[in-house]
Amino acid sequence: MRFFNGRLLTVLPYLGMAAALGLSAWTFIQSNRYRQETDAILNQTFEIQWRAAQIRERLIRVYGYLRIADATGKLDADIDRQMALVSVNVAQLENLPYLSRFFPDHDAELLGGIRLTLEQKIAPLVSARTNYIQAIADMAKLEQSIYEISSSTVDHSATLQQTASIDIAATRNWFIFAIALGLGATFYLVIHQRYALANRRDLHMRSFASLFAHMTRSRVTALRLFLEHTQPDKQPSGEMLEAARSAAVELESITSGVLQIAYAPQDSSTVALGALLDDLAQDRGSLVRVSVDSKARLQPVPATPLRLVVNELIENALAALSGIRNSPILISATVKRRPFLLRNYLVLDVADNGAGMTPAIAVKATTPFFSTRAGNHTGLGLTACSQMVSTLKGRLIINSAPGAGTTVGIRIPVHSTAATSWQSFLRRGGKEARG
């Protein structure tokens, strides 16, 4: 559960940044859609206003012709054309598919009344060229109706335009919020990565400190006992002197080795896992068997730390099998993919059929300075192994039971073989191009 929570915290900043980018894209698309809808609304309102203005203009001309005819008794022949234009504009305005969006029921009734008045009252009088007074009275009512329709259309258009502007402004605010969220996620990711880097550095320091202390404790104890039993007036025995010199030489060798590991370049060399395991097994003859699938065999791994860890696990297994014949150690490895975490994991197990450990000892096995060998162990120890695996962003798992043997597993993230080969190819190509 702790491993899952740690991986979730690692992936969470990336998920937050992806969500912020998705929200930004969505708000940008929404803003563009609102802009297009606003343009369509404005075009529709302009068409309605234009047709209403045409109707009003034609009605004014017809009204003027009727008043002149009432005063002079002669009706201008252009009135027939103007009446036809009024009828056409009214019919086209009524047939607009989006008219109901802009016209309330009252305005629609007024428009229908204009059409009926033109067809049933004014048109017959104009055709008969009589009773201009009645036609003038009806025209006054029509002019008032078209004026109300025009005013309502303008007001409604302004309201829609303001609403559309508010929608665009709201979408723009969402877009700015999404950008701010993305920046926040990005900065959080940077801080998280810096914290993770600092944590890995701390793990490195703890690992090497534990490694040095574990490997030098028994030798320092031997030198201290030598000094305590040395007397000024008595020459130490040759055996004690030889043991002290050997301990001093071993301390120098350990210090040099640890310093070499500590100051190794960050881009340390990698080696194929199969070659590394075969090399380790070759030194032990038939005591170690290797079972690695083809994908894991070609998998590049960090050479120095993994060699130290696997070598220590083999030594521990050999110590557990001391006195037991025909019981080889089995090293198995495979590469598994975690689809949700988008990375590959190397699963490496070192198993033996030794006496095993009780649950209490298995829990304490990775505790600093804990040992069941009374200071005789000279390797890394499971504590340093666990911490070194942690510096590789992995974990060390111990499964053991009395009488059933022990299996120590390593789980570390690795790059895919194809990706590594492609990167190597690019690097070789770049060197050849420079050459």
Task: Determine the fraction of residues in helical runs and give it as a percent range.
Answer: over 70%
How many individual domains? 2
The CATH class of the largest domain: Mainly Alpha
Largest sheet: 5 strands, mixed
What value does the Rg take, in angstroms?
46 Å
CATH topology of the largest domain: Four Helix Bundle (Hemerythrin (Met), subunit A)
CATH architecture of the largest domain: Up-down Bundle
The DSSP helix count reads 12
Order of helices and strands: HHHHHHEHEHEHEEHHEEH
- SS-derived structural category: alpha+beta
Provide the low-confidence segments as ranges. Answer: 374-379, 418-435
- Strand arrangement, largest sheet? 2-4-5-7-6
Care to describe what's here?
The chain has 435 residues and is of the alpha+beta class. It has two domains: 2-191, Four Helix Bundle (Hemerythrin (Met), subunit A) (Up-down Bundle), CATH 1.20.120; 271-434, 2-Layer Sandwich (Heat Shock Protein 90), CATH 3.30.565.10. Helices cover 70% and strands 11% of the residues. The chain has twelve helices and seven strands. The chain has a five-stranded mixed sheet. Strand 4 (329-338) and strand 5 form a beta hairpin. Helix 1 (2-72) packs antiparallel against helix 2, helix 2 (78-94) packs antiparallel against helix 4 and helix 5 packs antiparallel against helix 11 (381-391). The protein is rod-shaped and about 155 Å long.
